[in-house]
Write a structure and sequence with these properties.
The complex is a heterodimer. Chain A is built from no helices and eleven strands. By secondary structure, chain A is mainly β. The N and C termini of chain B lie far apart (31 Å).
Chain lengths: 112, 115
């Protein structure tokens, strides 16, 4: 089966660094996405990893270890607007087509 | 703005009723995906269409159905509605069905409330 685990909630201070972990078990792994979602709004794409290693994009970085079924999203220089849910999503190739399976999300609260 | 549009933005209806949610993908995108997001279950994949044909199915109930039309817009039909169907329904689109990089762009969602 498919399983994605991430912490339910995290808190951090403005200006700090926070790391959100995601572990997964899936067949036909074909990439891992991180999305940001503010309450009541659409998810927006943050990052994509398909090979092991770190992808850096401004204040956000994402890491993947396929052998460990593990990824993390690193947010630096936290701002109040970073308060949102962060969704880890695994793309699984099955029957020749991709499916995107989402974790339940990590709700991040950034405090002054 | 992702370029994906969904109508209506809000929908309030009663149990037992039937509703249709509409989605227009980004220009040029051939794939449309439907997701349900309720408070206690996160984002659940329902179904995917590619160029008019069903491609992948997730946790979609038999009371729900979808289709993609020749102009590539898609509709999600929900029938015999129950209180538990109250949720945010998102549509997403992407250029293809299978590719090495296939980011999905999400629409603003339709909030369905079943009373």
């Amino acid at each position: 089966g498919q399983n994605i685990d991430q912490p339910t909630e995290m808190t951090a201070t403005e200006g700090a660094i926070v790391q959100i972990n995601c572990t997964y078990q899936t067949s036909g792994f074909n990439g891992l996405f991180w999305y940001q979602q503010h309450a009541g709004e659409a998810p927006t794409f943050l990052s994509y990893n398909v090979l092991d290693g770190l992808e850096e994009k401004g204040r956000f970085s994402s890491f993947l270890s396929r052998s460990k079924g593990y990824s993390y999203l690193l947010l630096k220089e936290l701002q109040m607007k970073d308060s949102a849910s962060y969704l880890c999503a695994v793309r699984s190739l099955s029957g020749g087509y991709n499916k995107l399976i989402f974790g339940a999300g990590t709700r991040l609260a950034v405090h002054p | 703005d992702s370029g994906v549009t969904q109508t209506p933005k809000h929908l309030i209806t009663a149990t037992g009723q039937r509703v249709t949610l509409r989605c227009s993908p980004r220009s040029g995108d051939l794939s449309v995906y439907w997701y349900q997001q309720s408070l206690d279950q996160g984002l659940q994949f329902l179904i995917q269409y590619y160029n008019g044909e069903e491609r992948a199915k997730g946790n979609i109930l038999e009371r729900f159905s979808a289709q993609q039309f020749p102009d590539l817009h898609s509709e999600l039909n929900l029938s015999s509605l129950e209180l538990g169907d109250s949720a945010l329904y998102f549509c997403a689109s992407s250029p293809g069905a299978v590719s090495s990089y296939n980011e999905q762009f999400f629409g603003p969602g339709t909030r369905l409330t079943v009373l």
